[in-house]
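Data availability excerpt. The first of two example chains:
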Amino acid sequence: MEQGRTRDPASSQSVPGVTAPEPHAAARIPEQSRGEHTHSEPPAPRLVQRHSVRGQILDALRTALVGGELVPGEVYSAPALGARFGVSATPVREAMQQLAIEGAVEVVPNRGFRVTERTPRELAELAEIRALIEVPVMLRLARTVPADRWRELRPLAEATSAAAARGDRAHYAESDRAFHRAVLSLAGNAQLVAVAEDLHRRSQWPLVAGPAIRRADLVADAAEHSALLEALIAQDLPVVQSLVREHFTSGK
């Protein structure tokens, strides 16, 4: 986390772990865009790059939630979390507001944000909704997508296996969503992918007083991804249907 820092355009705060851009690189404008162009050449576009401290803090908080560093039921203040990440309270509050929309935290007036206490019933309900959306789409794709397209997803399945083998819950959550997102994106429906992604993320927030997720659980879940992908490549529809339904029935 000490490899570099980048500055928020709106403040002097920085976030550890991200290399800063070269001075003035974010607002460099070619000479042509200043009116010094010929009639045969259109003005060059302005090159503007923005680095969001809020986005980096949001990613860090999501990782802390999935990894269990932020405990369900506990209240955390924006200034305290800001001090932890080396930034002001403002980007933390903005990131926490987004997490509140996602159902990961709830606002506690004059105190901060309480991590949502997810119950087994809520997780079961989320799994049911995901199955209603994703299972029919996956079965339709199994009948229409050629094997070569499925082979392109092998690195994503392997990434879930690698994270599971390390017992890395945070990276497993990311690679798990990436795999499902890539599969659903083959349907060509951006709204479907966005809704499924939101439900998937909500289902990954930790349970309160629930059993700890073991490495073996992650490995078994990752194995289902790989088995499903191989069945899709082989166009073995009965196996695909069995694996897809089992994947969601088990709440993965």
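And the second chain:
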Amino acid sequence: MKKFSFELEEVLEVRNFEQKQAEAEVAKCLSIENEINENLKKIAQQYVAVKTMMKGSKDFDDIASQSQFNNLIAFQKENLLKELAQAQIETEKKREILKACMQKTQALEKMKEIKFNEYREEVKKTENKRIEEIASIKINSQNLK
């Protein structure tokens, strides 16, 4: 009997490739989100460090510098939060694409599994017919003796 072959195997391979690409895109987006979150943590740590360092200071220049630094940090934080929101939107878009790719791939995988099970059943039937033919030939040859 011929070897099992799935007529849509090439399509399945393309779908698997597309799924891997979509997974990589999601991972890339998540990496960007993580990087932005790390930068936000650094800003928070800088803010706490400066606040602690300046605690109790009565020097006008120090207070003015701290105020300018706080304004800079607030500006950076606002920009990072905007970037994070945009990155999260992009990540969600990529997740939707990945979800669609996975559904297409799973549908083909299921179809392949069904076709393979049908193939196995056909092989079993063919083997059983051959066994029956061999048994019948042996019985007939024994009856002729």
